[in-house]
Amino acid sequence: MIRRSKSGRTLFRTLLTSVIGVGLVGYFAYHTVQGNRGVLSLVTLMSETKDASETLAELRDQRLTLEARVNALSPAHLDPDLMEEQARFVLNAAREDELVLFFDQDEPAAE
Asked: CA–CA distance from 84 to each of 65, 68, 97, 99 (Å)?
């Protein structure tokens, strides 16, 4: 009878360690995929990084365009055509024989 209880304990311990081992492997496998620093989070982060890089490139282009316009209006690099355009736009002024059409920057002009 003592042998039976020892083999029963041994079987119980073996099952218990196996269940704990499988549980630990399952826990770490789940968090490797679904966790805060898992594979799915990495894919999401890479997508967000790509979007942010594209936005950054667009904003840099806009900045360069605006800097070029500002430099064109500076006294050292004065462009008379741009200065006249800005003055007419700000003052809302035109000659009597001119027709002025304003378009949104987002919409292309009709040809």
From this structure: 19, 16, 16, 15
> Residue 109 has what pLDDT?
57
The per-residue pLDDT for 71 is: 83
CA–CA separation, 82 and 52 (whole Å): 33
- In this structure, the number of other CB atoms found within 10 A of the CB of residue 41 comes to 13
For residues 85 and 56, what is the distance between their CA atoms, to the nearest angstrom? 29
Report residue 64 as tokens. 């360069």
- Mean pLDDT of the region 59-80: 86
Q: How far is Cα 87 from Cα 93, in angstroms, rounded to an integer?
A: 8
Average the pLDDT over 80-97 and give the result.
81
Can you tell me the distance from the alpha carbon of 45 to that of 51, in angstroms, rounded to the nearest whole number?
Answer: 10
Helix or strand run (H / E) with residue 105? none
Round to whole Å and give the CA distance between 59 and 66: 10
